[in-house]
Amino acid sequence: MTGHQDFAARVYGLSALGNVAINLFLIPRYGIAGAAIGTTIAVVATNIALVVIAKRTLGINTSFRWIGG
Fold first, then answer.
1. C-alpha–C-alpha distance, residues 33 and 62, integer Å
2. Contacts within 8 Å (CB) and 24+ apart, 49-53
3. Cβ-Cβ contacts under 8 Å for 11 (sequence gap 6 or more)
4. Would you tell me how many other CB atoms lie within 10 Å of the CB of residue 42?
């Protein structure tokens, strides 16, 4: 709704590629646990990137804590 959907699309695209790359490395070594770890790393990286983008481009604090209360 803010016109910054291109940033989000890039983040999600890079996350998908990163997820595949990490899983190609971890699954042969650790099996299903490697898949879980690789996917977790990709999801966490995606969320961190989106938080940083929201803060830098929109000035929005996405913290879940109440500020001042």
1. 30
2. 49/11, 49/15, 50/8, 50/11, 53/4, 53/7, 53/8, 53/11
3. 46, 49, 50, 53
4. 20
Q: Domain map of the chain by residue range? A: 5-55
What is the phi/psi pair of residue 27, to 5°? Answer: -60, -45
pTM comes to 0.80
Cα dihedral sign for 7, 56, 62, 47? positive
pLDDT digits (tens, 9 = 90+) for 39-52: 999 999 999 998 88
Both structure tokens of 69: 């209360």
Q: How far is CA 27 from the centre of its chain?
A: 20
